[in-house]
Amino acid sequence: MTAALDFTPAPGAAPLHRMVLAQAGAEVRAVLRNGEQLLLTLIIPVLVLVGFSAAPLLELPGRRVDFVAPGVLALAVMSTAFTGQAIGTGFERRYGVLKRLGATPLSRAGLLLAKTLAVIVVEALQVVVLGAVALAMGWRPHGGLLWAGALILAGTAAFSGLALLMAGTLRAEATLAAANLVYLVLLGIGGVVIPVTAFPDGLRAVTDLLPITALTGGLRSVLGGESGPPAAALLILLAWAALSLGLASRTFRWE
Fold this sequence. Notes:
The chain has helices spanning 16-33, 35-54, 64-94, 97-102, 108-136, 145-167, 172-189, 201-207, 211-223, 231-251.
């Protein structure tokens, strides 16, 4: 005897992990389809890597690509976790996207988790592309991959906190201007392509405490074969992460 089929509607939200994965997928596709975001996350870092590694624009210690490649990886993390996320979140807040998403079964914590997952996915793509270009140019990293991963995750947390702090308190246009300005300033003074030893001592006292400097220096040390964990760099990044995420959680406005 065939059992009767039950066609009774069973409304309800999908499991949290499915909602988070679906939203994260949408976030990643939005980044990859946006020309400005693609320019920021991939094209500019590749151009910086190729330009400063191939052309003798600056006097750099050691082989040029060995110095530039870790700095460009740090730049890629900053471009995605900070600049891109701040601008994108700022305009989502302005146009009411965050307010509408907050009314869906996906909780606000789930939305932040999805955004974080999307940032990590984009960063993984950046590492693959930039690593392949650097290897083709002769870069040979010497171990330290686990510590490099820890630095990238800590840097992602620090820059994400700064992005949410900016996007949740400023108007979208102000966030756009401020995020791009900070990106350019940190590119210049954060040790990405210019050694921090070239700066005056007074400026170095400030730059050494910046998250981009800690991430850049930490990646250079672990990928350059230096022994021991990058304790100082990790502590600076974790301190920035705790401070920025703590402030963002208190000040972020969803509409």
